[in-house]
Design brief:
The structure holds 2 protein chains of 2 kinds.
Chain A lengths: L2 E5 L3 H13 L3 E5 L2 H10 L4 E4 L8 H10 L7 E6 L4 H9 L4 E4 L4 H10 L10
Parallel strand pairs in A: 1-2, 1-3, 3-4, 4-5
Chain B lengths: L3 H14 L9 H14 L5 H10 L4 H9 L12 H17 L6 E5 L6 H12 L9 E7 L2 H9 L1 E2 L10 H7 E4 L2 E4 L7 E5 L12 E6 L8 H13 L1 E9 L12 E4 L2 E7 L5 H9 L1
Parallel strand pairs in B: 1-2, 1-7, 2-6, 7-8
Antiparallel strand pairs in B: 3-5, 4-5, 8-10, 9-10
Helix pairs in contact in B: 1-3
The chains are: A alpha/beta, B alpha/beta.
The complex binds S-adenosylmethionine.
S-adenosylmethionine (SAM) binds next to loops of chain B.
Chain lengths: 127, 284
């Protein structure tokens, strides 16, 4: 079973994401900020990370920059998931090593397709 | 509530004018799609709407009813495989077979809001080596004016650009305008958007190398599908291609096409043996 770490300071968003991800057969862990996410990665590197941008303690971009420099930190597929939906933010995220980018609000279809896009999910049969 | 008589009328009207097959249990769908039109055209109820269509089947109201009953859902790079086969099989074959000056002609026969032609255009831009400097023309048609206008505008909301479109492609080919994402004008080069009902004759379209006719035949009955396929074959080059939707097939729908070996959803015209050859056989 694939593992996904959901990093978001909103417990509501974490809950929504968890429900969708568990439906897609992921094992889900949660972190409320970038520092907590780094700790979680130290414990066990997840296959995928769903990453909010604006968070207290350590924001998403900084977390990603640190993660990508760590040993094994290049493994997780990272999908940013944020209300920052302008060109500049997306560019920064990709440069920092994000694999995909979701602009909130999102729905189940978008999350599923982005997971497919980064190779964490098998392609669904033809729609 | 729609009366049984009126339901029957709408059913026949839609079959005749758009090909749509409405089964007998779609009252809810019909009502929910038509209610906004009652308001828009200030009609008191469905029977007045039906009466209006009986009087004039070509009115603005009639067109609105037809458009309201279409399903326009589309997404970028839908089903992925067609865009892979486009680059691995179709483009190399056709590029090699055509004289350098001949443009490649692609028809998106149910283009809806444009995700399909733009996905093809992006695919071409990503693979410039496949066709060199050859011109590519896209004819994008649909029954609905409303979706064609949106297609031609190339503007998509945040949800739409997140359906099927990889983030790198979004950054490369779109720019953000207010709350919308607008496709770069470059990708519209060679694209024509035009209203065309697949039930009507295909006159003045010319000949196509590739026809995408995806996720529209599903709404029609078998004779209508067969007729459309036969007529598409007549405007397709003998060495051209037809691409259907993931749930569609030509099986049982006449002889115009046969599947590409090992490729579900892709078809080539069944070309009759050249006249000289059959003559030679006959003279034996
Ligand atoms: C589900 S969309 C398919 C869009 C795109 N080809 C795809 O696969 O994503 C179906 C489209 O077919 C159009 N359509 C329905 N009946 C039609 C007809 N008789 N002639 C032309 N287009 C028609 C609808 O307006 C709608 O935009």
């Amino acid at each position: 079973m694939k593992t996904c770490l959901v990093v978001d300071d909103s417990s509501v968003v974490r809950k929504v994401a968890r429900r969708i991800l568990e439906d897609l057969a992921f094992t889900v862990r949660e972190a409320a900020d970038g520092q907590a996410a780094l700790d979680a990665c130290d414990e066990a590197m997840p296959d995928g990370i769903l990453l909010d941008w604006n968070m207290p303690v350590m924001e998403g971009l900084e977390f990603l920059q640190i993660l990508r420099k760590r040993e094994g930190g290049d493994v997780p597929r990272v999908i940013f998931c944020t209300t920052n939906n302008d060109f500049e933010h997306i560019t920064k995220a990709i440069e920092a090593g994000a694999n995909e980018y979701i602009m909130k609000p999102f729905d189940q279809d978008i999350l599923r397709e982005k997971l497919e896009e980064v190779g964490l999910l098998e392609k669904a049969p033809a729609t | 509530m729609i009366s049984a008589t009126d339901y029957d009328f709408f059913k026949k009207f839609l079959k005749l004018h758009s090909g749509l097959i409405l089964s007998d249990d779609k009252h809810y769908l019909l009502e929910s799609r038509l209610v906004p039109l009652l308001r828009k055209f200030e009609l008191p109820d469905f029977s007045r709407l039906a009466a209006n269509l009986r009087d004039n089947a070509n009115s603005v109201v009639a067109q609105a009813v037809i458009e309201a009953m279409t399903t326009n859902e589309s997404l970028f790079f839908r089903d992925k495989t067609p865009f892979e086969v486009f680059t691995t099989v179709m483009l190399p074959k056709l590029h090699a077979a055509r004289p350098p000056s001949a443009p490649l002609r692609i028809w998106c026969a149910a283009a809806s809001t444009g995700q399909e032609p733009y996905s093809l255009a992006m695919t071409l831009k990503e693979n410039p080596h496949l066709i060199g400097t050859r011109r590519v023309e896209f004819l994008c048609t649909d029954l609905s004016n409303e979706v064609l206008e949106r297609a031609a505008s190339g503007r998509y909301n945040q949800f739409e650009v997140q359906r099927g479109l990889p983030i790198q492609m979004l950054m490369k080919y779109f720019k953000k305008v207010d709350d919308m994402w607008e496709i770069t004008p470059q990708l519209k080069t060679g694209m024509t958007f035009r209203k065309l009902n697949l039930l009507h004759p295909f006159v003045g379209l010319g000949q196509f190398d590739i026809v995408f006719c995806r996720n529209v035949l599903i709404y029609f009955d078998a004779p209508t599908k067969t007729d459309i396929l036969n007529r598409i074959a007549k405007v397709t080059a003998p060495d051209g291609y037809l691409v259907l939707g993931g749930a569609e097939t030509v099986m049982g729908l006449g002889e115009a096409y046969r599947p590409l070996p090992n490729q579900r959803g892709f078809y080539v015209p069944n070309v009759p043996a050249p006249a000289s050859m059959s003559a030679a056989v006959a003279s034996r």
